[in-house]
Amino acid sequence: MKLAYLFSGQGSQFAQMGMDLYRTNATYRATIDEAATALQVDLTEPTVWDDPAQVQVVILAMSYAIYRQLTTQLPAPVAAVGLSLGEYSALVASGALDFAAALRLVRDRSQYMATAGKQHPGKLAAVLKLNPQRVTELCEDYAGVYPANYNTARQTVIGGTSEAVTAIQPQLLAAGAKRVVPLAVAVASHTPLMESASKALFKRLQAERFAAPAFPVISNTTNRPFTVEQLPTTLANQLVKPTHFQQNLLQLVQNYHVDTVVELGPGTTLSKFAKQTVPNLVTYHVDTVETLQQVQAALQVRSE
Amino acid sequence: MADQQAEILTKIQEIVANQTDDLNVDDIQLTTSLKDGLNLDSLDIFEIVDALEDEYDIEIDSDEGIETVQQLVDFVQQKINSKD
């Protein structure tokens, strides 16, 4: 088995997520408690855990807590990819970023994004069943709208000002898009509207120390493995450049010969993208006690 | 009519089970809620509708108001029959 981990981004969080793991899994609980200490917030309090303002740190803590549990039981991964926020979870898992430092970094990143979003309110929409190249070309003709996430061959998310995202819709449909689905977010991540957040994050990253990752983490932005030297630049650019998750998945298979992926963190978005991009990949996800047990049973890991 | 319903259900089960390795055919019954029962979001539902359109050569303009598997089966059946 050639295993890669996929680390969830935002968008699939659910209320009370991870509480069953917290109650029953010692490693998981210890990791969440560590996060609570690093952030000085009570993460056992549902009003804190489910607070939209905390969602980025919560997903990081949850994803890494599951990783810690699984990594003692599964073979070492040959590579990892996270989507957007998920890159921080992947970098922590690889040892490139310290967990406590990453939590504070992600907390600040979400504040920079919220501030930039207030300065330049934006909108995201998923464009379905139109060639990503065509979506890119059409965006080039419109001021204020950009490709934000190249998710699969059939799904590209565009982002920009509310007016521009609305204005481009008829063109996308005329070009053959099956549907344009607005996403419920107020911040146009991965577009130039995040310029001020990107700059603030770059400055903030100067204060951090990084270590060489134990396994390659493929960047959404460059589609190359993160390096210690380029880490601040790549993570800052990530906020203003599109993510290339489809390319990341293809690279996992082509360059790293991955045949099995396990998504860590809330939801199944990345497993579904993986299935669509590489149908013969074996996909799992872990975000509950039940799904953890399924993966442990399926991959026949030794019990603790 | 019942046969046609059963056939559409089988097709839906096949499509949904193919989306991830997490769902089994048995998880998908007529009374199952697409959103809460199967954890599907609007983009997932689109993928299912899209596959059904190709399978039955029908056009589904909007999946609004479709919440359960039964409603989806009824909707597809109605589209197929209005085509003839």
UniProtKB/TrEMBL annotation, chain A:
EC numbers: 2.3.1.39
Keywords, ordered alphabetically: Acyltransferase, Transferase
One record GO biological process: fatty acid biosynthetic process
GO cellular component terms attached to this protein's record: cytosol
Molecular function per GO: [acyl-carrier-protein] S-malonyltransferase activity
UniProt-listed InterPro entries: Ac_transferase_dom_sf, Acyl_transferase_dom, Acyl_Trfase/lysoPLipase, Mal-CoA-ACP_Trans/PKS_FabD, Malonyl_CoA-ACP_transAc, Malonyl_transacylase_ACP-bd
Group of enzyme by EC: transferase
Domain Malonyl-CoA:ACP transacylase (MAT): 6-294
Database matches in Gene3D superfamilies: Malonyl-CoA ACP transacylase, ACP-binding, Malonyl-Coenzyme A Acyl Carrier Protein, domain 2
Active site location: S84, H190
Substrates-to-products reaction catalysed: holo-[ACP] + malonyl-CoA = malonyl-[ACP] + CoA
Acyltransferase in keyword set: yes
Source superkingdom: Bacteria
Family that this chain belongs to: Belongs to the fabD family.
PANTHER family: MALONYL-COA-ACYL CARRIER PROTEIN TRANSACYLASE, MITOCHONDRIAL (PTHR42681:SF1)
Identification of the protein by name: Malonyl CoA-acyl carrier protein transacylase
Species for this entry: Fructilactobacillus florum DSM 22689 = JCM 16035
Automatic annotation (TrEMBL), chain B:
Organism ancestry: Bacteria, Bacillati, Bacillota, Bacilli, Lactobacillales
Major localisation: cytoplasm
Gene it is expressed from: acpP
Pfam families: PP-binding
PTM annotation, UniProt: 4'-phosphopantetheine is transferred from CoA to a specific serine of apo-ACP by AcpS. This modification is essential for activity because fatty acids are bound in thioester linkage to the sulfhydryl of the prosthetic group.
Keywords for this protein: Cytoplasm, Fatty acid biosynthesis, Fatty acid metabolism, Lipid biosynthesis, Lipid metabolism, Phosphopantetheine, Phosphoprotein
GO CC annotation, single: cytoplasm
Species name: Fructilactobacillus florum DSM 22689 = JCM 16035
Function of the molecule: Carrier of the growing fatty acid chain in fatty acid biosynthesis.
Record-given protein name: Acyl carrier protein
InterPro entries membership: ACP, ACP-like_sf, PP-bd_ACP
Domain Carrier positions: 6-83
